[in-house]
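Follow-up to my earlier ticket, as requested here are the two runs.
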Amino acid sequence: METKTASDDKGALYQRILSDIRGRILSGEWPPGYRIPFEHELSAQYRCSRMTVNKAMSELARSGLIERRRRSGSFVSRPRSQAAILEIQDMQAEVEALGLPYRYELLSRRSRTATPQDEHEAGLATGTSLLELTCRHFAGVSPFCLEERVISLAAVPEAEDESFEDEAPSPWLVGHVPWNAAEHRIRAVSADAHLAGLLEVPRHSACLVVQRRTWSGDTPVTNVRLTYAGETHSLVARFAPQAG
């Protein structure tokens, strides 16, 4: 007959803590950004030593499920996504690839005419009729991306009759307008109060901005600014050597 040792008890508790916390994270009960109870609280809950709790938390941090912040505690990690720089991504597919449910929200929609700034930034001639849209894309309960877009109604007149309340602009445009050229510009910005509120990140957080212009023939179609929390998104480019 085998005798149960103290080390067996510690091992079982370690696995239980690890399994419990991992299960809450993967089920969505503890969403990205959720503060996990402090180690002394978990130690009291599981009636074990801080060392056993620390071992479980360290394993969760190594696996990327949690982030440990000095003096602040441990938080459920926000999933990191990767997007190819030279591709136009399907936002829903990108979110679902992270294992999270996707949701889209239209924040504003208005018609206006292009300004000299639109002409400078996107080649949309001043006075051109535009449709301006602001949208948010969610990964689970957290904002994934803020989309700020203008569509040329000269290039896509049918967009004027589309509400964009149920379908995001990008898949709608792909299905309605053939495009033959696109340009991406990428930069980093510091979140001001307005942007921080929309992305639900701390003020002055680093954010990644992808600005994309597309053309159909020589006609500008759309100019869009996609803003992501810098900690949750990265861009990837793959290159091949040119022949010759």
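Run two:
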Amino acid sequence: MVPHALPLLVATDTAELLRGTTIAVATVVVLVLAIGVIAFVVLFRRGGDRGIRGTSSQSALESRAASLLVTLDDRVREADYELGFAVAQFGAAASRDFASALAEARGQLTEAFRLGQQRDDVSATADHVRRRITLQMTALCEQALAKLDRFDTAFTERRRSEVGAAETAQQLRARLTAVRLRQTTAQDTVAELATTYVESAVKAARHHLDTASTTLDESETALDAAAPGISPTGVNAVTDTLRAAATALHRADRAVSAAESAVNELAQADAAVTRMRADSASDLLEARVARETAPDPTSGARIVTAIAANKRALEQTAPASGVLHDPFEQLALLGDAAAELDTALATARNQQQRFEHARAAYQGTLVAARSQISVVHELVGRSGASARARTRLAEAERQLMIAEAETDPVEALDAIRRSVTHARDADALARY
């Protein structure tokens, strides 16, 4: 296991501040749609139906909405880094309003992504519906960007007169030391895992650690550059340099955390593969009985096909001594085969049996969904991605939340499988 970083003042303040705004995020996500609708109605009351009957083509409107979505998504990611520096420089209390504004902006971004998914699902012939949704997305993005712009300006002005540079630099040095220790420990763990897993399975963790190494060096270089200019009376010349150091350090911290998560996901995936293999073997016994009592030839043929798919999945995921493996790839094989068998046996199972099989399949699929979503997040953060890729990613996250909150195991399994599907689509679009 990778040890946690030593508790530090700034990290603690940031965590407490983020926990304090988590409830606000949930509330904002629920209310943003209502706010957007009200704003939309006000717009039309002021200008009649000119918004829908204007001269702008739907293609131009959708292009602008896509651009705003990408811009806002990137700004929210950057604002996360900015919040960490604001807490370090001004304290948690002084940064609380910024944290709340960021929570609201993130909620508006989430709603804009949901609307984008809804628009993509609308028939191409429903132009008036697509236009209305696109305008709502645009309004939400513009409101959120304006909110973040106001705080950027406010922080810039405040930093011009900030005189706590010495304390800020000291806190950043302490955090730098702690993150480097975590990075070193994670590197040792990944090197050990490379003797068990194929390179593709540890590639994400390696990439995160490489990113951490680079950004830690950048942070240390910036801190060294700021040191000569820090004095009790004159700090204006180093504020921007300290901000660069804090931003790089925050990126490094996140990269190490991502590497630690990737390591934990490997262990979870391995355990899920073991469970799913046992469940698949049991399901095959059930399927063979159902094949003999199928109500019609079509149902029987579907069961036969599903049995063959599950047998292949079991063969391809069988453990072999000394052979490196990829548990995420194995989960995908077993999950797809299980879904095919579930469909084939749906009519033969009673409700209790469906619940039991759904609960068994859920955990493995949950690990696969979280892993896929994590990969796409890294892709977007590393090289950017289109609005469509980000929209699919947002929908995958939304379906994951639905699955985790669902009490009906069958509905939860359906939702988590939808999450996997959207995450795969997002991955393909992000790499395109």
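The only thing I checked on run two: DSSP finds 13 helices and no strands in the chain. Let me know what else you need.
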